[in-house]
Inverse folding.
């Protein structure tokens, strides 16, 4: 059986990112947040666009004020008021200054700004009470960014700072990667939808909802294909359809060793290459990962073969395997050039954590901030892979590596921080 890290490496290696030419769309800046930039952005503008003041104060010639002090202030004549948004008409001559406000253009002749707090005003004269540094409080044209160089690279996620930069650079529309399409279906004769009355022995298909929410959180588009019976013909039909429409296919259930677990058999009959059948982890041992022969890719939404994840049926195992394997795969596929791997933190455990040591074990719980330091609190109740209930309100998974049977309270533990808050 594969270790978790080997499985992770195999999966990330199989992911082919979206194509920077074909798999893009143009969006308005106001709807571009959280999208992945597909084309590098260059601006024809310098930042700042012109020399401007970083303070409310007085624009002066440094030469005039270099020996100024509170005891022996230099007195300058104020020849102009320059609010932000106005261009000065005059040139500052020796002995002169201009009243200036933050962001306003430095007038010709001036090279330094004296902040208002270091001055005293008397009608149209200003007393300079301190010696500024040469060029102090002048934001020089192009000192933050030079026109024509790269402003933002392709492959980054657009968060609020990038959106602000793009607005400042006057980019009202952008080329971003389309959202990855993720087909989702649940397998099992026992499953019913959320609105059907439960008959004896039936189970509500919660996985479909959990996976759809996870997919949306990841920035991808869920394509809901419903519940499929444990019936080879029905499974073959839904998988064939999913191959045609999706970049990633996520099924749950039917990948274990039971008599009604048909997923792997159907994948084989469709000539899929099965790369993973099981992983040494708890929960989440039955996990199928497969790709399809490239000629099945003709007429598909993408020329890449879709990546098939047969997730376990157990609800907790679905969430854990999604966070551990599927989320990094979606991120890599989405066009992000780095940072798709899961983030592990080393934190203190509040509780005793136990495992049988035979498989890498994931225990769910919550990170609490205690005096600014994270502490992991294990969720109360059963950590059986069939128990979904105590996963609610958790935000981290503690990881006990293989062979590790006990982490004592206050001992350090690695946790996978979840982005579901
Ligand atoms: P399986 O791997 O198909 O044998 O499923 C393992 C367990 O997970 C069984 O108890 C199933 O009833 C349960 N299960 C399977 N699919 C779902 C689902 N979509 N929603 C909730 N529970 C499920
Ligand atoms: Mg089943």
């Amino acid at each position: 059986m594969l270790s978790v890290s080997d499985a992770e490496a195999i999966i990330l290696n199989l992911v082919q990112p979206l194509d920077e030419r074909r798999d893009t769309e143009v969006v308005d800046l106001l709807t571009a947040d959280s999208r992945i930039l597909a084309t590098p952005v260059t601006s024809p503008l310098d930042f700042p666009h012109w020399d401007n003041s970083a303070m409310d104060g007085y624009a002066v010639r440094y030469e005039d004020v270099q020996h100024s002090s509170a005891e022996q202030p230099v007195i300058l004549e104020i020849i102009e008021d320059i609010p932000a948004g106005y261009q000065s008409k005059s040139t500052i001559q020796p002995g002169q200054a201009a009243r200036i406000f933050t962001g306003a253009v430095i007038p010709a002749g001036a090279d330094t700004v004296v902040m208002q707090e270091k001055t005293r005003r008397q009608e149209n004269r200003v007393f300079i009470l301190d010696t500024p540094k040469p060029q102090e409080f002048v934001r020089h044209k192009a000192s933050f960014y030079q026109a024509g160089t790269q402003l933002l690279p392709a492959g980054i996620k657009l968060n609020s700072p990038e959106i602000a930069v793009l607005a400042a650079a006057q980019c009202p529309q952008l080329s971003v990667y389309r959202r990855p399409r993720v087909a989702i279906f649940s397998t099992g004769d026992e499953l019913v939808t959320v609105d059907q009355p439960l008959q004896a022995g039936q189970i509500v298909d919660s996985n479909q909802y959990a996976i759809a929410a996870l997919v949306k959180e990841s920035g991808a588009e869920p394509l809901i294909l419903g519940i499929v019976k444990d019936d080879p013909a029905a499974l073959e039909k839904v998988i064939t359809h999913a191959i045609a429409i999706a970049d990633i296919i996520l099924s749950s259930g039917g990948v274990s060793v039971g008599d009604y677990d048909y997923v792997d058999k159907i994948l084989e009959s469709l000539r899929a290459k099965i790369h993973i059948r099981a992983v040494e982890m708890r929960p989440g041992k039955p996990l199928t990962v497969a790709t399809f022969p490239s000629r099945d890719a003709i007429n598909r939404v993408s020329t890449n073969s879709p990546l098939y994840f047969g997730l376990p049926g157990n609800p907790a195992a679905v969430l854990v395997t999604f966070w551990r394997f599927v989320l990094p795969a979606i991120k890599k596929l989405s066009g992000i050039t780095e940072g798709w791997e899961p983030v592990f933190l080393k934190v203190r455990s509040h509780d005793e954590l136990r495992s049988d040591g035979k498989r890498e074990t994931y225990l769910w719980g919550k990170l609490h901030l205690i005096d600014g330091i994270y502490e992991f609190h294990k969720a109360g109740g059963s950590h059986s892979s069939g128990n979904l209930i105590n996963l609610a309100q958790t935000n981290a998974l503690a990881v006990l590596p293989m062979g590790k049977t006990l982490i004592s309270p206050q001992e350090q533990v690695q946790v996978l921080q979840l982005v579901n808050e």
Observations:
- Residues 315-333 form the longest helix (19 residues).
